[in-house]
What we know:
With 337 residues, this protein is an alpha/beta fold. Helix content is 34%, strand content 27%. The strands form three sheets. The protein has a seven-stranded mixed sheet. Strands 2-1-4-5 form a four-stranded antiparallel sheet, with helices on one face. The protein has a two-stranded antiparallel ribbon with strand order 12-13. Helix 3 packs across helix 4 (128-140).
Amino acid sequence: xxxxxxxxxxxxxxxxxxxxxxxxxxxxxxxxxxxxxxxxxxxxxxxxxxxxxxxxxxxxxxxxxxxxxxxxxxxxxxxxxxxxxxxxxxxxxxxxxxxxxxxxxxxxxxxxxxxxxxxxxxxxxxxxxxxxxxxxxxxxxxxxxxxxxxxxxxxxxxxxxxxxxxxxxxxxxxxxxxxxxxxxxxxxxxxxxxxxxxxxxxxxxxxxxxxxxxxxxxxxxxxxxxxxxxxxxxxxxxxxxxxxxxxxxxxxxxxxxxxxxxxxxxxxxxxxxxxxxxxxxxxxxxxxxxxxxxxxxxxxxxxxxxxxxxxxxxxxxxxxxxxxxxxxxxxxxxxxx
Length: 337
Ligand SMILES: Nc1ncnc2c1ncn2[C@@H]1O[C@H](COP(=O)(O)OP(=O)(O)OP(=O)(O)O)[C@@H](O)[C@H]1O
Ligand SMILES: [Mg+2]
């Protein structure tokens, strides 16, 4: 596998402005300084809770949305600084998309081959070459025997294969899939993952696949977990010593500034609040709770207040201001001012 990164995101930020009733805008920070890098030819999975920023990441990587801050490079393109026209060309020429409801964009009364031909024709291809290219694409997704079937005569998995064939039509350098198996049963989902893996190997195609399925780790090279718009952990396959067997290991990741996020469950388990002692040991670095640290403020209560503020932010700006006043008063009280 090539070790050159195709995708490099550093401190990537995406803020959406929501216009509330009453005219005041509220910001939603969908990506809050996300770092991720993907090698050429690598196939990665992206998991995370609903609203954690997975689709936003795909939309930025696919040139559908522009980053608000940080760096997003794909190949030679700096997605933050491309002109509108260059971004359109990037999306059209370099990226393939597969959506959860991919088949819904297809036309039920046309055959599989006609559905693939349609976008080829729209992109300017004409004549016999269109049919030949459609067949080639259907062969890639192993659907050549069903090419003459109307879409409504195909199963959900087969329809998704037609959508994948269309995503490959521009010979993309990057394939982005948002929950491609979300509407399929588990055995059909398995066949779609097998197909994506086969395309990744045969075409050397770099893939980023968003999924809610924690089992995705067995289908891809690496899984990155997103939490609150940041990279939280990575699960990688590690080869056992003196054997061909692999096992999956989940690792915490450092951000571009070298910061490490400690999983919340560990903070709770070891009753760690705001400060820790870091020591080196023969095995590595030990992070432990300081003994009798009077100034260690309970971080978890801050977290719940933050969550309260965020939920009030949705209700409107005046509520938000009240919430901020409350937290400022609380901070002053704690600082003894
Ligand atoms: N166009 C938009 N305008 C405003 N806010 C948005 C927009 N798109 C996403 N968001 C917000 O950004 C955050 C991240 O959304 P995103 O769609 O990336 O989450 P996700 O991880 O894909 O979730 P899911 O698993 O439910 O698909 C959410 O709070 C969402 O409401
Ligand atoms: Mg999503």
